């Protein structure tokens, strides 16, 4: 019997599972929103043709990758493969990821608390953050989204609010 | 008061301040086992005779003859590599940076190259790329403004590839900052005014932006107090030694505050105006500061009100109704700009319309405001601003700052 025991940090399977599912869902939702929302579409249009970004959890937690392919925005699963990743959003731990992905903490606040690290060219990273903010507004009820974004948008038309939301949800669930 | 759930604060720079602080450098170098520093500066600093003061303070004790004065106004990768070569060829063991922001950035870049034996500086850009302490770096600021003598960031431009590389690491903090009143004594009133307003903007933004915390707050409040009190004095009497030293310390305090709590809209729009129109950073800060306060007031009124005490003192603070304190802070900042405008014979601009180049040509034509508003969307400072900003918000603020009219706070979009 060894007198020295390896102490393993907790794996937190439940939180990891939640984070994994959520990243999968967000990935598909970003792909969907890029088809439905003009503003998000425009943000992506302004990015390079092979633009790729990832949102993941350190040190080896779940991850999702979004990339542009022939002008279309695609959720690429959890591995960027050979693609050059322009922007990497890394959440420091599964616990922090849980806070952010359950919308108890917005991207800006998570950044100020050093829980969300952004790596890559700043202009691209800012575009990604603007995109994520809009996606959150589509996915969440106002009362929750207004905690996650700095300023909940006013003046969205009924079409954008309702039609857009239905479009985003349908496409997210169907993965189209 | 807003107490964040979690925050980080770090400033491990040894600060040496005084009217003869430079004379302490030899001891500080010897303590660190160094005796052959490379002195990095620019032509303006050397031409003003400041390097002579530094070398006179070093000469008898350590080697002080290796001086590179070719740092351009905008940090440049080629110069960084060239200076690193100079450092190696002469078997130097420390760096002394004497100058403003660009000199500090360059020195930090050189330090990465010589400490890591880097051939490609780019490999060390981004967060967390540096893993161990670098060579001893002593920062001697010659303006009371940027605060880069206590910041952990450096920006180096690769003018050939049109790249801007940002470096951020606690290892980039200088080991020692030397604040000596002789280094700022010859700064003309006009430069004194705008660099001082840069420092003021660091302290004020640090006090209301998203990453504020009790430790950065303490530094920010002390900085606001010193800068507000001494900036008009040094602009009027450049040779007032005590006031000069107070400004140097105030700017350093502001630097410590903002490097831990970051800055927001004022720097965001200021950086963009600088890059589109070439307006000096400090001048952009002076003009934008009242607007940053007005734009964010609905989210940060309490914090802003708290700035009245270190600025105006107890009596004014007590006599101003709480609901008017934040607005009073804004009007005091505007008044400070107006006073500096008078002291400098009109050279210190109060709004963008007033900014002119050497030939008297307007530097910010109204037509470029949309371009500035767009450029600002690519600047990272927006993350730390309390209220969100989009293109329309940026343009609205810029237009007010161009005309010199207070911002109509009813028009600020709220969530
Ligand atoms: Fe600044």
- Give the number of helices of chain A: 7
* CATH homologous superfamily grouping of the largest domain in chain B: Dehydroquinate synthase-like - alpha domain
Q: Which fold name is given in CATH as the topology of chain A?
A: Nonspecific Lipid-transfer Protein, Chain A
Biggest interface reads: A-B, 22 and 25 residues
Radius of gyration of chain B, whole Å: 21 Å
- The arrangement of helices and strands of chain B along the chain is EHEHHEHEHEEEEEHHHHHHHHHH
Q: Taking strands numbered 1, 2, ... along the chain, how are they ordered across the largest sheet of chain B? A: 1-9-6-4-2-3
Mean pLDDT of chain B: 95
Write down the domain tally of chain B: 2
Each distinct ligand: fe (ii) ion
Number of strands of chain B: 9
| Overall number of domains of chain A | 1
SSE string of chain A: HHEEEEHHEHHH
Main sheet of chain B?
A: 6 strands, parallel
Q: Walk across the major sheet of chain A and give the strand order.
A: 3-2-1-4-5
Report the portion of residues of chain B in β strands: 5-15%
CATH superfamily of chain A: SCP2 sterol-binding domain
Description:
The complex is a heterodimer of chains A (176) and B (415). In chain A, β2 and β3 form a beta hairpin. In chain A, 50% of the residues lie in helices and 15% in strands. Chain A is α+β, with helices and mostly antiparallel strands and 176 residues long. Chain A has one domain: 2-Layer Sandwich (Nonspecific Lipid-transfer Protein, Chain A). The longest helix of chain A is centred in the first third of the chain and has 24 residues. A 5-stranded mixed beta sheet of chain A has the order 3-2-1-4-5. By secondary structure, chain B is of the alpha/beta class. Chain B has 2 domains: 170 residues, Rossmann fold (3-Layer(aba) Sandwich); 223 residues, Dehydroquinate synthase-like - alpha domain (Dehydroquinate synthase-like, alpha domain, Up-down Bundle). Chain B is built from 15 helices and 9 strands. Chain B is globular. The chains are: A alpha+beta (176), B alpha/beta (415). Bound molecules: fe (ii) ion (FE2). The site of fe (ii) ion (FE2) has 6 residues of chain B, from α6 and α10.
